[in-house]
Amino acid sequence: DNFFVESLKDTVDVHKKLTNEGESLVCGSCETKSGAETFCTECGDFLCDECVAIHRRIKVTRGHQVISAEQL
Asked: Which parts of the chain span the membrane according to its record (predicted)?
């Protein structure tokens, strides 16, 4: 697939989640479906505080850029 098209689609999906009034963001990583405060730009997942802490400790995801949902 075309990288640009896929990237654009991912961006639109994130925008839809952020602008969907009445719905809170939920963590896409854990089963608790806790409220998500951050977003991993590499994985494309919203993360709760507990999962962000784990994300930053695991060797494979340690270098990922994690930003607050407000920055999106």
From this structure: none
